[in-house]
Each structure stands twice: as structure tokens, then as C-alpha cells.
Request: fold
Amino acid sequence: MDIDPHWITTPITADLLRGALDLEYTEHGVLPHRLPARARAQCADPQLAMVESQPSGVRLAFRTRATAVELDTLPTKRLYIGAPPRPDGVYDLLVDGTLAGQGSVSGGKVMVVDMTAGGTELRPGPVGTLRFTGLPEREKVVEIWLPHNETTELVALRTDAPLAAAPDQGRKVWLHHGSSISHGSDAASPTAIWPALAAALAGVELVNLGLGGSALLDPFTARAVRDTPADLISLKLGINVVNSDLMRLRAFGPAVHGFLDTVREGHPTTPLLVVSSILCPMHEDTPGPTAMDLSALGAGRLTFTATGDPAERASGKLTLNVSRDELSRIVAQRAAEDPHLHYLDGRALYGEADAAELPLPDGLHPDAAAHRRIGERFAGLAFADDGAFAGSGVFAEDGAFAKGGGRGADRRRVGDR
Reply:
């Protein structure tokens, strides 16, 4: 007969969280943020506010002998009018680095989005409970990776045995910034987004600043990267600047230089890898902006299309091919004085052959299988003996990365300044 355990409630504090840059204390509990408060105050864009509060790569990490864990959360889910309902966000439970369970939390707030009219409505909802049982009765490290695509307020953490913050395992810290693909759009779960897969293969600790629709060379994001302790940094740039039609070539180059200058203020010799966009057929030679395909939406499908005119490249409009050429040129120019700066063409992660085999379902975002392929390829390229992050991971003889890693810089946790 099942007997309810004697629950121990542990306050959710900064030392239990990894992957967040800031914590906000709300009326319900703790809300992890992936941009600091000062950065959030400098931009009123609701898209940015939504995605930076979605805890992609953020996880609770603790050591315990507990066999049962409960987590109360208040999620914010999204409902797009006219599109099929989105599934509940997934929580991944890892025990000593191995996936041991998954779950979801029902209820919560609902952000109703009218993509055709551009309006939103936030509907209130209740706190829900996530529960994992049957964990091994031994000392172990437990990680709960929060849903990468749901804003998640952490309300209460309970276990049937005491817990303590997980120890620092000496792994190097990899900070990655990118677009919705790096954020994890259309991935199956938070540990199945491509940066999490690559980090696990390479044996490094991930800080994921993949911000859906918001990799726009913003100075406040550059300062966030500059001020965050990291042993390795990668910046995946291009697609959001193109599909938002944000700037022309004249502004793009100096903005990239300025972003890199700011990052180098805080990380002068850190290995820094600039990655261009993966293949996106509709934007290879066609500028933005990107628009939702309303005819597909009417049929219950969410797909996108490029609305720019290829002829406008002559007046400085950006396409992915133009952005790749400029990024490659800038890195080559700067690398003459910065030997720790590197470039990777994103089509090495997902190119023409991949698009034929695993096409982007909505025209922009890879599916779960493509996320895995991109993560495996990034690990194999960036952490290889001749890669930008050579010597920073653990490379096994069979060609796969093993967990572990060398001693990195002392890591300050969220809240430490």
C-alpha cells in the first residue's frame, strides 16, 4: 500500500538553480529570468519579455537520497487563435546525468495570442504539481530541467529526504546565444534542444541565451554575455535580423563588431565561436520580413513565408547568404588580432542534404530529429581537436563525447555578483 512520504519543503534559492541569470520574487514564488533586470528594463518588446522568461536550459540541481520529489509551479502557456492547441511543457528529470523521468503541469496562466490582429490576453490559472517517485534510494544528483517553452514560476520544492545544492563538478561553462532554434523551438523536451544535447555530449555546463525571435544584436544582450562567467562562448547570428527585416547591410556589420567588442570587454581571451544560420531555404536569397501563412493557419497549421523581394538585396536588404558572407568576413578580419575568435558556417550543422531528409516543418524551425542532428554535429565540430573549443570537453575513442570535462573557471551562480 502506498504511504504518503513525510515531505520536506526546501526554499528555492539561487544555489539550487543553474542556467538563469536573474531571479524575480513574485507573489507566487520564484521566476527565473535569462536576461538580467537591467537588460529587461531597456526593451519593452513583448516577444523578448516572453522568451527570456521561458527557462530554456534552466534546471534545479541538488544532491539527495530522496526517492520522491514534488515541485509546485505556475506555468504560463500560450494559445494561438486559429492554430492547434500547444501541448503542455515538458519537465525532464535527470538522475546522475541520465534521463529518469518526464512530466508536465496542467493548469496555469494562458497567454492567448491573436497572430492576425496582433493582440494578446492573459488569463489567470491555478498552480499545478509535478511529482516524481521511485527514485533510487542512494546519494545522487537530481536535476529537473524546466520546460524550455513555458514561462515557469517555481512555487515550492518538496522531497522525502533532505537535499543540498549539487556540487560543482568542475565542468567548463559554455554560454550560447542564438535565435528560436537555439531556444529550442519544436524540440521534444528541454534536454532535447540542440544546445542541451551538445552540452551533454561534450560534458560542459550550459547557459542558454537562445532567445526566440530576439537574437537581434541588442547591446543589452551583449552586456549580459559580457558579464556572465563562462569558459566558452558561442553566438549564433543572422536569422532573426533577416526575418525581422531589422537592419540593412550598412548597419549589420558595425552592429556585429559592436556586439563582439562588448563581449570581449568581459571575456578578452575566452574561446568565442561565431556561428551563422543553418539552412533556411525560404530566406537563403529572399529578404524578410517573415510572415505567418494565413491560408495554412486557416487550415490549422502554423507555417511561415518570406515576404521580401530578392531584388532588394541590391539596396542592402539582408538574406541569409548575405549575412553569412558578412559574418565570415568580420571574423576573418578580427581573427588576425584575436586568435581565440572562430567562425562556423551554420550549414555545416544543417544543410541542403539535411533539409531534403528532415525539412523544417513550419519553414523556420527544425523538428526533434533535426535538433538531435544539429546538437551532435555542433559537439563534433566545436569540441573536436581542431575545433574552436578544443580541449574543453571529453572526446571518447568511439567518436562520441563522454560526460565530464576539465576544471573550468570558478562558476558564480545566479544571484552572485
About this structure: The two ends are 49 Å apart (CA to CA). Confidence is low (pLDDT under 50) at residues 395-417.
